[in-house]
């Protein structure tokens, strides 16, 4: 066993753990990706498919990650070693530390954008007639401001993490996640009562089973995986702070349900708003920083609703960013025996420095540097979301399904539940993860 049967006894409370895990799961994926892919791939029909994917792949792997963390009581890397005594698994586990480290570097940039837009909106700067929001985003991203906001994000996340698991991460989520739900509901009520909102609700939810095809299945699978923050070492690390008496099975369902509810409400905000103002629905940057600001600019009290919307995005991004930064911090604390504060400061600084070129590559000075046709920002995204995350997910599945014999005991599963979990982890998840991987890197097309 490694040195990681550590002296640290940092633990979440039971509800704190569930809120922190929901905080991690509910991120920009819920807010700006899920609604769009649902609308595009058949509304309520896709929603049902997504639930099936959560059940078949998402929840079993979520349970596996938390189980590895609690059983191994180490970092996302050493937990594998602690449980198997095998250095090779420890090395594979290290990928679950490298991946979040890279994700944090560019995710902080995006989180910074959301903070900037929240401040701008509350200040009334987005509320004029005839603003070209596309140009405005391009100019903003080309300026030095994103780096300043990225630094703000790193200071917030590093500060929360430096305060520890229960005093920092848990408190942060306990305040923000319920606050988040209140803002979501206020915005949803505003949005569905706009004139012409029904067309948006119809686009989001009208079931169209004819639109379901192999591509929708892969999109739903990939999103089920991403949305639960899998393949990033997060749930392994958070799992290592869970008390033995907590039921991981119940936590798995609570986290899955929480993730689904937040995503669903996000859809009920976005589409009625966009359709009501006759704008094109889209996803990602175009939706959040171009289409929606244009809608808020025309809405009565748009500065307020727009500000609340960007605040919502910022909270979603920050609670996810905290969870991802904790992974390399926990690793450094354990591997090099650093104090939590030292690890938080050093890792945040390194992530910041690594992320600066990504921030400047979107439309800024480094935009013309595009090796292989991708900006630095896009390379960070591609290498992590499409390559490293599926590999990390595969490592978790194979480890729990084949290598670690006592997983069922740690997960609290027996009989049929255990058998089902094993069938899913051994046979179903690996095949599906492989398909997602081959599809997202472009090796297979459907
Ligand atoms: N579950 C998150 C989402 O849906 O946005 C995924 C995530 C991304 C978590 C980036 C953490 C993170 F830093």
From TrEMBL:
<keyword id="KW-1133">Transmembrane helix</keyword>
<feature type="transmembrane region" description="Helical">
    <location>
        <begin position="177"/>
        <end position="205"/>
    </location>
</feature>
<feature type="transmembrane region" description="Helical">
    <location>
        <begin position="303"/>
        <end position="331"/>
    </location>
</feature>
<feature type="transmembrane region" description="Helical">
    <location>
        <begin position="386"/>
        <end position="404"/>
    </location>
</feature>
<feature type="transmembrane region" description="Helical">
    <location>
        <begin position="88"/>
        <end position="109"/>
    </location>
</feature>
<feature type="transmembrane region" description="Helical">
    <location>
        <begin position="343"/>
        <end position="366"/>
    </location>
</feature>
<dbReference type="InterPro" id="IPR047218">
    <property type="entry name" value="YocR/YhdH-like"/>
</dbReference>
<keyword id="KW-0769">Symport</keyword>
<feature type="transmembrane region" description="Helical">
    <location>
        <begin position="253"/>
        <end position="275"/>
    </location>
</feature>
<dbReference type="InterPro" id="IPR037272">
    <property type="entry name" value="SNS_sf"/>
</dbReference>
<keyword id="KW-0813">Transport</keyword>
<keyword id="KW-0812">Transmembrane</keyword>
<feature type="transmembrane region" description="Helical">
    <location>
        <begin position="44"/>
        <end position="68"/>
    </location>
</feature>
<protein>
    <recommendedName>
        <fullName>Transporter</fullName>
    </recommendedName>
</protein>
<dbReference type="Pfam" id="PF00209">
    <property type="entry name" value="SNF"/>
</dbReference>
<feature type="transmembrane region" description="Helical">
    <location>
        <begin position="12"/>
        <end position="32"/>
    </location>
</feature>
<feature type="transmembrane region" description="Helical">
    <location>
        <begin position="217"/>
        <end position="241"/>
    </location>
</feature>
<feature type="transmembrane region" description="Helical">
    <location>
        <begin position="147"/>
        <end position="165"/>
    </location>
</feature>
<keyword id="KW-0472">Membrane</keyword>
<feature type="transmembrane region" description="Helical">
    <location>
        <begin position="424"/>
        <end position="444"/>
    </location>
</feature>
<comment type="similarity">
    <text>Belongs to the sodium:neurotransmitter symporter (SNF) (TC 2.A.22) family.</text>
</comment>
<dbReference type="InterPro" id="IPR000175">
    <property type="entry name" value="Na/ntran_symport"/>
</dbReference>
């Amino acid at each position: 066993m490694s040195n990681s049967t550590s002296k640290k006894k940092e633990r979440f409370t039971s509800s704190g753990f569930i809120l922190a895990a929901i905080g991690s799961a509910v991120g920009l994926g819920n807010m700006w990706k899920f609604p769009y892919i649902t609308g595009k791939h058949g509304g309520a029909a896709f929603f049902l498919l997504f639930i099936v994917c959560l059940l078949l792949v998402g929840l079993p792997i979520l349970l596996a990650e938390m189980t590895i963390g609690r059983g191994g009581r180490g970092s996302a890397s050493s937990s594998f070693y602690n449980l198997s005594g095998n250095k090779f698994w420890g090395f594979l586990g290290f990928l679950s530390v490298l991946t979040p480290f890279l994700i944090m570097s560019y995710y902080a940039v995006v989180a910074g954008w959301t903070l900037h837009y929240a401040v701008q909106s509350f200040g009334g700067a987005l509320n004029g007639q005839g603003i070209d929001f596309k140009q405005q985003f391009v100019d903003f991203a080309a300026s030095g401001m994103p780096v300043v906001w990225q630094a703000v994000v790193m200071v917030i996340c590093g500060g929360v993490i430096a305060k520890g698991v229960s005093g920092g991460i848990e408190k942060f989520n306990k305040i923000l996640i319920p606050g988040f739900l209140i803002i979501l509901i206020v915005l949803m009520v505003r949005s569905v009562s706009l004139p012409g909102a029904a067309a948006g609700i119809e686009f989001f939810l009208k079931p169209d089973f004819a639109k379901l095809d192999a591509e929708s299945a892969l999109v739903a699978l990939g999103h089920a995986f991403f949305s639960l923050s899998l393949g990033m070492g997060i749930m392994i690390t958070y799992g290592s702070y869970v008390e033995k008496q907590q039921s991981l099975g119940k936590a798995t369902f609570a986290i899955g349900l929480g993730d689904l509810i937040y995503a669903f409400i996000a859809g009920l905000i976005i589409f009625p708003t966009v359709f009501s103002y006759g704008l094109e629905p889209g996803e990602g940057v175009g939706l959040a920083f171009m289409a929606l600001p244009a809608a808020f600019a025309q809405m009565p009290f748009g500065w307020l609703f727009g500000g609340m919307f960007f605040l919502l995005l910022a909270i979603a991004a920050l609670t996810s960013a905290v969870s991802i930064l904790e992974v390399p911090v926990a690793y450094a604390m354990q591997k090099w025996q650093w104090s939590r504060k030292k690890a938080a400061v050093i890792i945040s600084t390194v992530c910041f420095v690594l992320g600066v070129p990504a921030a400047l590559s979107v439309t800024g000075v480094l935009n013309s540097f595009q090796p292989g046709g991708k900006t630095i920002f896009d390379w960070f995204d591609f290498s992590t979301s499409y390559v490293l995350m599926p590999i990390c997910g595969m490592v978790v599945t194979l480890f729990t399904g084949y290598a670690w014999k006592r997983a069922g005991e740690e997960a609290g599963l027996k009989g049929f539940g255990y058998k089902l979990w094993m069938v899913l982890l051994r046979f179903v998840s690996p095949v599906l993860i492989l398909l997602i991987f081959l599809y997202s890197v472009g090796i297979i097309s459907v």
